[in-house]
Amino acid sequence: MNEKQSPVTNPVLKEAIARLHQGEHAREHQMITLHMLLQAQLLAPVTITPDKKNTQLQFQLITTPDARAFFPCFTDLEELKKGFPGETQQTVVLTFGDYARMILRDKAAVGLVVNPFGDSLTLEQPLVEFLEKVRLDEEKTKPPVKS
Hints:
globular, alpha+beta
């Protein structure tokens, strides 16, 4: 069944990141922002190449002037369009855990950047590793969902 998926939006996370850029650096606000990121669904720009047996996904990377590669991710389509204006950019929806696994396993990137073309949030590998441990610990202690 092909259900229509609602668009990815993260207005509270986006506002929290903007507040960091406006000088809100209280440790409590930083922790709340990072916790929101752990729960968010994010847009990942990709190139999708179908073939007869498998579909290939190639994740986009952005590179700093000193040649360090980061995975870009976006809170919503508006932020994605800042980096890919006028294009029909292919995307997949990922979570922080998905990015953490790619960063920690593949070493193709040194971290991730949320909304790299606007108010951005950059997380390098040591912080990604720490937050992934926090996320996994929270997942273990979460009560089971009753249906």
